[in-house]
TrEMBL record:
Keywords: DNA-binding, Repressor, Transcription, Transcription regulation. The keyword Transcription regulation applies. This is Transcriptional regulator, DeoR family. Residues 4-59 form the HTH deoR-type domain. It comes from the Bacteria. InterPro entries: Carb_Metab_HTH_regulators (IPR050313), DeoR-like_C (IPR014036), DeoR_HTH (IPR001034), NagB/RpiA_transferase-like (IPR037171), Tscrpt_reg_HTH_DeoR_CS (IPR018356), WH-like_DNA-bd_sf (IPR036388), WH_DNA-bd_sf (IPR036390). It comes from Vibrio hangzhouensis.
Length: 254
């Protein structure tokens, strides 16, 4: 059990809720100097409760994602704004691929007024929402349901998406990171030699499903709230240049 001050505990609570906080913002909130906040952050990082960034602090780096329920409670207003912008651009009568994630589920919740949609998704929460609408045809792959993540992933899921052709494919990601180019990603353009921003996932099987969605969609859209630019993940999905639309950015705008 760590002996945290009340302010340090509140900082931990805030980064759990928001995923990322700026030093200036915390300084203003607690009415203390930025040096005081940095000392707090240094102590939290030393015991593994936080991760430092230039100008801010986030959740500690992890090889796995937090639960769907926990992620659903973070950055709610920003995710809702992103979902509203996305849904405004989805045309009636289209075939739509939806990937995993809580922002994708928020998009599904707003699609009820669209006409004659065919939705193909491995996002169990999104499928559950869409199944309430008779006029939306919803397809989901078979396989093991990941209860922590609210989705289905596996070797057969990429094949399942490959049986369809979508007008629009929408994915989210665990993080957006600037990394150097490397080996060519299947079905995607060659990687740049210079460092470039990539959509990333925590696990290769998650990245593989997102790549299948990208490969089978005419329009490729990415949704990523501002905290994704402060997170870390290890499995490459695609460079941001692959996407026709990116909803959300490092500063919260399209």
């Amino acid at each position: 059990m760590h002996n945290l001050s009340m302010r340090q505990q509140r900082i931990v609570d805030l980064i759990q809720q928001q995923e990322y906080c700026t030093i200036d913002g915390l300084s203003a909130l607690f009415n203390v100097t930025t040096q005081t906040i940095r000392r707090d952050i240094n102590e939290l990082c030393a015991i593994g409760l936080a991760r430092r960034h230039h100008g801010g602090v986030s959740l500690p780096a992890t090889l796995t994602n937090r639960s769907f329920t926990t992620r659903s409670a973070t950055n709610l207003s920003e995710k809702q704004r992103i979902a509203e912008r996305v849904v405004q651009q989805v045309p009636d009568g289209c075939t739509l691929f939806l990937g995993i994630g809580t922002t994708i589920a928020a998009i599904a919740a707003l699609l009820g007024n669209h006409k004659e949609l065919r939705v193909v998704t491995n996002n169990f929460q999104a499928a559950h929402i869409l199944a309430q609408h008779d006029h939306i045809e919803t397809w989901i792959p078979g396989g093991k349901l990941r209860t922590n993540d609210g989705d289905v992933v596996g070797d057969n899921v990429g094949y399942f998406f490959g049986q369809f052709s979508a007008d629009v494919g929408i994915i989210s990601c665990a993080s957006v990171m600037k990394i150097a180019g490397g080996a060519r990603t299947p079905d995607l353009p060659p990687l740049e030699a210079e460092p470039t921003e990539f959509a990333m996932e925590h696990q290769l099987r998650e990245a593989a499903v997102s790549q299948a969605i990208i490969a089978g969609a005419q329009q490729k859209w990415l949704v990523a709230n501002s905290s994704k630019w402060q997170c870390k993940a290890s499995a490459r999905v695609a460079p941001l240049t692959v996407f026709d639309r990116i909803f959300g950015s490092a500063n919260g705008a399209d």
